[in-house]
């Protein structure tokens, strides 16, 4: 009796165990979609890569634009420096030319002063000749003609020394002015060359 019941129990288990997969399939089939776990969506790596690539391209364009702006600013600064250098050289050249003109005017003034002084010295040299001294005193009556001649000679010689001293000072000043003028002319030539090079570059 117990063996029969055991066999029945085992048969039931077999039947139930055989039907269980089908029941499970039916349950799974009829479960609502919301109750099922959603499958994990695959990560869209291509979209992220495209976004990163877009950011890199935009950054690259920004860097290129900034580099172009910096280069443009550098060119403008270089142009400003060039024009400032040109203006500076022109200002120096103008000052040197004005200085040279002033020196030439001073030299010309000395030459004008030199001419009458030199003419007076030539005149005194002529008057100091013995025959001219005798002739100058010929119409003057004197008890001591030699002393009169010596006095006249001394007066003319003293005047000649004074005039010669003035003339020597003029010559010294003229020499200094000529040296300064030569320096100014050389400076003008150098500035003109520098200005020509600056305007060509």
Model description:
The protein has helices spanning 2-30, 45-127, 130-136, 145-200. The radius of gyration is 60 Å and the shape is rod-shaped. Helices cover 87% and strands 0% of the residues. The protein has 4 helices and no strands. Residues 1-42 have low confidence and may be disordered. With 201 residues, the protein is an all-alpha fold. Helix 2 runs antiparallel to helix 4. The protein has a domain at 78-201: Helix Hairpins (Orthogonal Bundle).
Mind sketching the topology for me?
Blueprint lengths: L1 H29 L14 H83 L2 H7 L8 H56 L1
Helix pairs in contact: 2-4
What would the keywords be for this entry?
mainly alpha; disordered N terminus; single chain; 4 helices; 201 residues; Helix Hairpins; 0% strand; 87% helix
Average predicted local confidence, pLDDT? 80
The CATH class assignment of one domain is Mainly Alpha
Enumerate the spans where pLDDT stays under 50 for 5 or more consecutive residues: 1-42
Share of β-strand residues: under 5%
Order of helices and strands: HHHH
Q: What fold name goes in the CATH topology slot of one domain?
A: Helix Hairpins
Shape: rod-shaped
Helix content: over 70%
Question: Could you write a compact summary of the structure shown?
Answer:
By secondary structure, the chain is mainly alpha-helical. 87% of the residues lie in helices and 0% in strands.
């Amino acid at each position: 009796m117990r063996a029969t019941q055991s066999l029945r129990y085992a048969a039931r288990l077999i039947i139930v165990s055989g039907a269980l997969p089908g029941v499970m399939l039916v349950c799974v089939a009829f479960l609502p979609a919301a109750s099922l776990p959603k499958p994990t969506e695959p990560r869209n790596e291509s979209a992220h890569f495209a976004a990163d690539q877009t950011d890199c391209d935009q950054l690259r364009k920004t860097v290129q634009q900034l580099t172009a702006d910096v280069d443009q600013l550098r060119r403008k600064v270089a142009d400003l420096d060039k024009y400032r250098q040109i203006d500076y050289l022109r200002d120096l050249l103008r000052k040197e030319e004005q200085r040279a003109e002033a020196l030439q005017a001073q030299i010309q003034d000395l030459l004008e002063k030199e001419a009458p002084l030199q003419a007076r010295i030539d005149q005194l040299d002529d008057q100091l000749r013995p025959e001219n001294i005798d002739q100058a005193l010929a119409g003057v009556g004197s008890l001591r003609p030699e002393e009169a001649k010596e006095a006249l000679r001394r007066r003319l010689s003293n005047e000649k020394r004074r005039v010669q001293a003035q003339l020597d000072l003029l010559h010294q000043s003229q020499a200094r002015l000529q040296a300064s003028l030569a320096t100014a002319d050389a400076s003008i030539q150098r500035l003109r060359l520098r200005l020509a090079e600056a305007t060509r570059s």
